[in-house]
Amino acid sequence: MHQFAHHMTRDQLTIKRGDPNGHIFFFIITEICSKMSESPAESTHDDIKSVTPPDIPIEIVSDEEMALIDAALATATRCSLSSSAASSAISAIFCSPSRSSSTCFPSQLLPRNARSIHSITLLAKRRLLPGGGGETADIEDSGHFAETQKRNRVAKSFLELFRKKRGLSVTDITGTEWCEKQMEFTLRFGRPRVNKAMKVGRARHVKREEEVTKNVKVRVQSVEDRWAIKFINFINGANQLLSEGLTRELPLYGFIEGVWMVGVIDEIQMPVKETDRNPIIVDIKTRVLETLPAASQRRNGRLQLMCYKYMWDNLAAGNFPSRQFFDFFSLNPYYILSDEVRETMAKSGCPAKTLDDIVRSYMITWNMLPPVHNQLLLRYEFQKDQSLLGEVEFAYDHDWLKSQIQGCLEFWKGEREASYIPDEERWKCKFCQFAPLSPTNVKTESSRSPSKSNSDNTPS
């Protein structure tokens, strides 16, 4: 049995619940633990006391950090970067302003005594942030390297290294479609810094979520407790959709194309016409520029919404292999949930004793939901005043979606190297912080005048 005595953390998730007034509450799950320490016993041998050991600083490298070191070295060898580019790549891994000069590992990947509390919906964007090296997200983003990385440097896929016992997120799929090399660098070196435009976009989504939800704290004691809260979060969101006609930040957990995938739907609403029972998926995109996005950005948005529909329709058809779910995420289906979690379940109208009880309720809820409408909607807002720039309605294309997902999975499963973006989309490199690491950009960057280069800009 895993012992938690020496490494305790504080985490937060959320769950939705309806009250008699029609409001939906978010239960913030907080796990509060203590870190125990024990001083080593002093030696009683005189000969040992007489020896004064030299004061040598010791840095303990965790398996998680070792995995990133191995990945960085593998990248430097595989890509045959120039010595200067390789040096900057390794420096990006080992140096962090939050660490002292004697120890330089990415601060966001180090264990901490008490982690700050974050909403499950924020984890899903980022998480599921926590992506490859940080926590933003959406539901969606730090790896469990201790069980996946061996010191002998056996070649493993990104799926095994960074998403084992986590599953892929829809953000992983859209990020891979946007640029596979950028996704590779993100996994190896950590997420790029968050700029002002990204912060404004996230704040807009949080504000929209708070229009229909409210936060309430709930303490959890195990990973099974946390998963129970995730499932009840969906169940209550689905109930809100059926009763009020709209819900936001709805989490999905499903199995498609042979992999477990998670996602968070920005907004889903019932159609105005009572004759149409199929919900409509809507996603809000905020823009810095007062224009509609380029074709490649619209394509990426279409891919995101089609992934949601694919997951939704698959779950609504009853395709949720619960035994595989418990095995993949190493969960005990018969674990007795904590008293506080069970009390929360009962108040939400879904009494349960074990995690298996909640999973069964999750599957029953899907039996009440129809497939999503074939027409999907992207809505673009101007960040400055939140005015509507335009709406793009498009039809679901199952064949195109499957080809896109399968292409992304070839990269994640290690079946091929990361592809470079085509020449006509090379403009993306102007907004990518990893552009100097890409061999295809070395010549371009050296010839580009400083006035034409602005790495702080971000497409939106």
UniProtKB/TrEMBL annotation:
It holds the Pfam family Exo5. Residues 439-460 are annotated as: Disordered. Signal peptide: none annotated. InterPro entries: EXOV (IPR019190), PDDEXK-like_dom_sf (IPR011604). Residues 447-460 have a biased composition (Low complexity). It comes from the Eukaryota. PANTHER family: EXONUCLEASE V (PTHR14464:SF4). Belongs to the EXO5 family. This is Exonuclease V, chloroplastic. The lineage of its organism: Eukaryota, Viridiplantae, Streptophyta, Embryophyta, Tracheophyta.
